[in-house]
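Teaching note: in complex prediction, the entire set of molecules is handled at once rather than each chain in isolation. The prompt given to students was simply: 'Predict the structure of this complex.' The entities are:
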Amino acid sequence: MAKLSFENIGITHLAGAVPKTVIVNRDYTDFFSKDVVNTIVDKTGVEHRRFSRKDQTASDLCFAAAEKLLFDNEIDKSEIDILLFISQTPDYRMPATSVILQHRLGLSKDTAAFDINLGCSGFVYGLSVAFAYANMPGVRKVLVLNGETRSKVYHPKDRKTAFIFGDAGIAAIVERQENVGKSFFSLNSDGSKSDLIKVDAGGYRNPSSPESLKEKVVDENGSIRTDEHGHMNGADVFNFVLREIPKSIKQTLAYANSTIDECDFIVCHQANKFMNDYLSRKLKLDNAKVPTTIEKYGNTSSVSIPLTIVDQLKDKLDGHRKLLLSGFGVGMSWATAVLSTKDLRILTIVEV
Amino acid sequence: MKENKLLEAFQEALELEGEIISLDDTIEDFDNWDSISRLSLIALLDEYFEVEVTNAEFDSLNTLRDLRDLVINKQK
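The expected output is the structure of the full assembly:
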């Protein structure tokens, strides 16, 4: 049972970046009728999203967030001992994007840099890794970079996925912090459901080929995609979320010897509005404590939790705060954290 | 289980309030039956009956009676 706890480790700084290009979902009608689009937007709640440029990657968004984070907070780069890059949209299949970012950010060659390949659970998983490193003697600062360009993963003619996903990147510092309090993590996985959200081809099981790049009709609505685009079984993802997430949240709170009422904010992965609202209702959450960005930025996969914190909780995390974080999705993989923060400094989101 | 409650859930999920539907109706014949209304029905089946119906199970159903039987079976 992967349950971890830490004391006197905290996130001290957080910054975010989004692409300048705003997609107005109700006008995203090149391939679908206005009626269909409005029905989808009413249900999913995704009014706007950000799309990166063709030549812009997740690491570019993280780089912009990191530069602002380091500059505005006057952080000494030589104190960064570990760099993590959390993403499923890396720059290349090799080398690891984190290593490219080490050089680009002008960090020392003494920096440990590696990638973590997880989706919607990725930020909470990555945070647990950052906490574990920061807890070790001799480690000063861990730089957590978490970015996604999910707009490039899905086909604009696939009705099930064309209107949901967007792009963003964040940067965070995790380090020792006296009297911040304790934080708790619960990490889970269920590979029996690996088909629910997947890109079938382009890896080494089904390498890229002329066949994998062919557009095909994939459902009764006439949705089109290739085998190198993502697909999602939304109904069974929802079933999975209803079965596992309330249970995981309750177990993690019990492990943390805490209650939902003691948490100042509950930040869930922004999947879609319908799913998030139902989850909130099932857990009887106070809406005032549940920040959301699904309307503004859509589903940005692993970035949606920290992006929601940056966008919605700036200036609300002075002093001691307790946050419940819940990430769930592709894998299936899910992670819950009860996170203590102290004077967490959040910068205004940059547009790049 | 009350048959009315199941029909009510189906009506609510597909936004068919006021329309007359019966257990003999074929699910595929409803225009609003798509991936979006499935999400609503999953939520209502969870809320009313505490059961989980998978996508493959939905695909295998013919009439609303089949859905009722499946839900009853799952509740056992």
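Point out the following to students. DSSP finds four helices and no strands in chain B. Helices of chain B lie at 3-13, 35-49, 55-60, 64-75.
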